[in-house]
Prior knowledge:
Blueprint: E1 4-9, H1 13-23, E2 31-35, H2 38-50, E3 54-60, H3 69-78, E4 86-91, H4 96-105, E5 110-113, H5 118-136, H6 149-156
Parallel strand pairs: 1-2, 1-3, 3-4, 4-5
Amino acid sequence: MEKLNIICVDDQREVLSAVLQDLEPLCFWLNIEDCESASEALELMDELDANGEYVALVISDHVMPEKTGVELLTEISADARFTYTKKVLLTGQATHSDTINAINSAGINRYFEKPWGTRELVECVRTLVTEFIFDKGLDYTEWQSNLDQSVVLNRLR
C-alpha cells in the first residue's frame, strides 16, 4: 500500500493540535504529520520523499518566523518532486495581497481563514487527496471508500 502523507505547519502548538484533532477521522487511511516551522516541514518532506512516500497535501499557516506560509508553499511548488502536492493556506492574518500572492506564486488549492470549519476542512482534505491520487496516477482502488466520490466519478469519465 502506498503511504500518503499530509503535513500541517504552524508555529503555534495549540493551532496544530486543533488541526490534528479536526483531521483525526482521516488518520485511518492518511498519515498526518505536524511541523512547527517551514524548515522542519521541508526537512520532513525530503525524508518522506527519500523513503518513497508521497506528500499529498501541505496545510500551512501564513505568519511564521523565518519563512511565511506563502514562501513555504511557493518553495514546494518550485520543487519538481512535489509537482502534484496540494497546498492549503490556513491563516487569520494574511492580507489580501498575501492571499493573491499565494494563489499566483504558490499555486495554493485552497485558503481558509481562522477559525475554520471542521467539516469544511475535512471535506477539503478528502477532495484534495483524491485529486492528488488521480493527478499522480496512483491506483485509487485501495482507498476507494475514503475518497471524494464526485472527484472519482469526474476523473473516470
